Amino acid sequence: MVLSVSCVACLCLVVVVTADPCLIISEINADNPRLDTTEFVELYHTSGQRASLDGYTLVFYNGNGNIAYKVLDLKGHSTDDRGFFLVGSVDMLPKPAILLPPNTVQNGPDAIAIYHTLAARYSEKMNVTAVGLVDAVVYMSRRSGGAEFLAETLTPGEPAFVEDDTAHDGDESIERCLLSEDRWGFQVSLPSPGQRNNCTPPATPTTVPLITELRLGGGQVDGFVEVTEAPGVGPLVLVVVDGKTDRVSSSSYLWEWSFIEVPVMTTDLKSVIGDASGAVAIYSGTVTDFPVGGPLSQVQPLDAFVFAGPGSKPSAGLTETLIPGRQPFQLSNRHFLTPGFYLSRCGVATWARDPGVFWEAPQTPGQPNQCPWPRICPHSSGKYISLLYDFLINEVNTDTPGAAEDGEYIELWHPSGRRVSLQGIWILLFSAHNNKPYREISLSGHFTTAKGYFLLGSDRLVPAPSLRLPPNTIQNGPDAVALYRSPFGPPSATQRGIPTKGLLDAVVYRQRGSDMEAQELSKALTPGQLPLLEDPEVLPGDEALSRCRGLYPFDLSAFSVAPPTPLRENSCPRPPPAPEGVVISEVASGLWTNHSQQRAFVELHGPAMTSLQGLVLSVFPVFIQHSLSTFVLTHSHHLPLTSSVSCIDQTFPEGSTVPARGAVILCYDLFSVCRAGTALTNSSLRDVLVFSEKQQLLSSLSTSRGRQVIPALR
């Protein structure tokens, strides 16, 4: 469905799909039907051009023992003219640059990693290491499991990718695709060696209409909106909201015909640069529900696109209602004189209401979107990405002391850490005895607290839950709690067996001696992982399963048995003592001189042979919210007696460096408390060096440790 529409604030948009180029693992085919004669690993340089691979090493790890079974020095090789480089079986086409015997690439649990440092540091049968790591993929099958240690070392915080060999008839491969903004993920798709991956947006849904293309133009140039059809949904309305006033500027029906004109409302483009923002949203209802000039509706839209003008941002109410927990699309005045600007849904994320899935692309109304291959690196956010911008299960208490069990609860949390609508969110409580939900709970109409928490539990629980349950409702296990986004009814209504469509997070748990009974729930909801044990013998009195080690969904290793803390920060087990005496000793940026040999580096100093486990080194540009790089210095690293640029212990990720103006921060972090974008506290901050005059950066960091310096550019 394509609609012509003129926007209230018709500015041009710029989506950031370019950055300093890097080398990534783009595709892996580790398991062919019958004999493994067409295995391959595809590397890609995000410049899209020929690039030298000198200094790079490709290492293959066996998850059984966590040691290297194959090491390839890539010195002397280059990517092709489009940025691709193939390592693969002798029988495959196109012919790989490096040939491997059949059945070389193991099926999992295994890992493949790229390093950039001296090739002599890597050899077959070495232990898994993160020293010099540039990129890595950890994978396993539903049957194998056992990749936890590889994932912890190579992709900390991100569980291994589970390859489903039933996804396609014949052969398939693991392909990397951009989800949204700078968040990457993996999917199983048809092999495409030496070609762009099959990263297509989700197929047209049958129940939820999605905005797939936008054209925003200036002056008298009409824009348009392309929407996927959704038969049977009922009347739909397209609403344009003025970001200055949060009021409706136009609304129009989306009927069954393919094209409809919307009343034209023109705006002088130049007059709104600097303070324009707004939104386009699809609602279920009638135009009388959204009168022109009326206030922003509190009804949750089916899909929405929110944009912010240069130097401005939409109101908190606009983003909270339309795109909870996500950022608006940032406008730019770079193309404000052009007659139109085209955006296409290109990110493969399956969720709606996310402006980050839109990129600048050619207009293709009624046709598949022509999405460019993104040139942003997976490492720009400091870690590998999962669905960090949706609700998570934060704490579960299924078994309280006494026969009444009137203190049970489930606590949810939204990573935005603010008030967010729970419209369309469902909790399903599963019994392992029949693998069916024994209770389905809709959370529509509810909101999280101002800190992002939501509590449902027994009616006598203190603090009082937002949604009350009768005592002894949550079963003790073996069972599961699963969280879904399902805007048109309970997930079980349209899916057979254990529903997985729309699944946001899940916790499978058990009592002693019941681990075998939860196999089917574990296989569907948390594949490759063992059920959690809420052990009543760990703590005196009551206890809960609390999220303590990361914010990734379906990751049971993130949970620990801990004291109950409903609607409060989780009380996690005490970590080991932080390394003492380690400080930032020296910092250099390649941008502080015009000499070609100037190198960027950060040197740490401390007692000899001090373990660096738990220390995180972050290098920030002018704003603390977006780090250039985050290094987790794990237990396998020890600080040498001396350090110099010629003897590097760990390299910057490809495309990252020390900026001309910014900060270097050393903090202690075992539980993701001082990652990029989170608040730093005196308890986690170990040392800081600020070399910037930006007051926003200076005020964001404690000055009780470290000192501000302003280096000369030359």
Automatic annotation (TrEMBL):
Whether Metal-binding counts among this entry's keywords is: no
Keyword line? Signal
**Keyword Cell cycle among UniProt keywords:** no
Where does the record locate the signal sequence feature? 1-19
**Entry-linked PROSITE patterns:** LTD (PS51841)
Q: Where is the LTD domain?
A: 15-158
Q: What is this protein called?
A: Si:ch211-183d21.1
Question: Native species of this protein?
Answer: Sphaeramia orbicularis (orbiculate cardinalfish)
